[in-house]
Amino acid sequence: MKFREGEILYFDKPYRWTSFKVVASIRNQLCHKLNIKKLKVGHAGTLDPLATGVLIICTGRATKRIEELQSHTKEYIASLKLGATTSSYDMEHEVNATFPTEHITRELIEQTLQNFVGEIQQIPPSFSACKIDGQPAYKMARKGQDVQLKAKTLVIDDISLLECNIPDIKIKVVCSKGTYIRALARDIGEALNSGAYLTSLRRTRVGDITVENCINPLDFGEWLDKQVIEEEDIIE
Coil, strand or helix: which one is 108? Predict the structure, then answer.
């Protein structure tokens, strides 16, 4: 392994960890192992704290490939609660409105999901890292400020219904860079003439990398001890 020259590592981000926390943990352990004070480390595609799954981490010169890696197709398994909404479109905030679900059937859900396949316009969540005049939207939203974000064009390659126990459903989504599954949950709820928010999210694939190929960050130290590291990376 040549961490300073550049390596690409794949992690299964734990629940309630921020993507930054994974980066910081990996950087600290690598610096300690290599006996250096600084090492460039970054991630290719943020995952919300309440989400789990594939998080790509780049070190050294491999950080130049972050934009390329972010462009890869992603696959998610998402659980949604129909008939209610939250301000963040997930469980980070409490339910702020409820809606009827009596009219919703499995057939209606399957038909509705297909309307999202292809190129769509999506307004990102107010509680997101999208910037308004250089300021992250979530910081404004947390202060109670009005957040107006513009719709973005993205592509949904496929959506399938995995489980249907109304008001709880589980879907698989294959999509392009920039897709907010929380916002997709919001839009699915509206399309069903109801509401919906995300109750769990797992990123199962980025490009050809699946969660089966990933390391738990808690096991990284043990994994690192087993690696052969090039001598120029180690400073005695």
Answer: helix
Specify whether 217 is located in the same domain as 229.
Answer: yes
| Number of domains forming the structure of the chain | 2
Task: Choose, from 12, 48, 90, 187, the residue flagged as catalytic.
Answer: 48
Is 157 an annotated catalytic residue? no
pLDDT classification of 124: cutoffs 50, 70, 90: confident
For the whole prediction, is pTM greater than 0.85?
yes
Query: Who contacts 161 (Cβ-Cβ below 8 Å, separation ≥6)?
Result: 106, 109, 110, 113, 169, 170, 171
Q: What angle is formed at CA 114 by the lines to CA 107 and CA 175, rounded to 5 degrees?
A: 135
CA distance linking residue 144 with residue 87, whole number of Å:
11
Which pLDDT value is given to residue 229?
85
Range of the domain at 149: 74-206
State the Cα–Cα distance between residues 215 and 180, nearest whole angstrom: 24
- 64 and 92 together in one domain: no
Domain at 127, CATH number: 3.30.2350.10
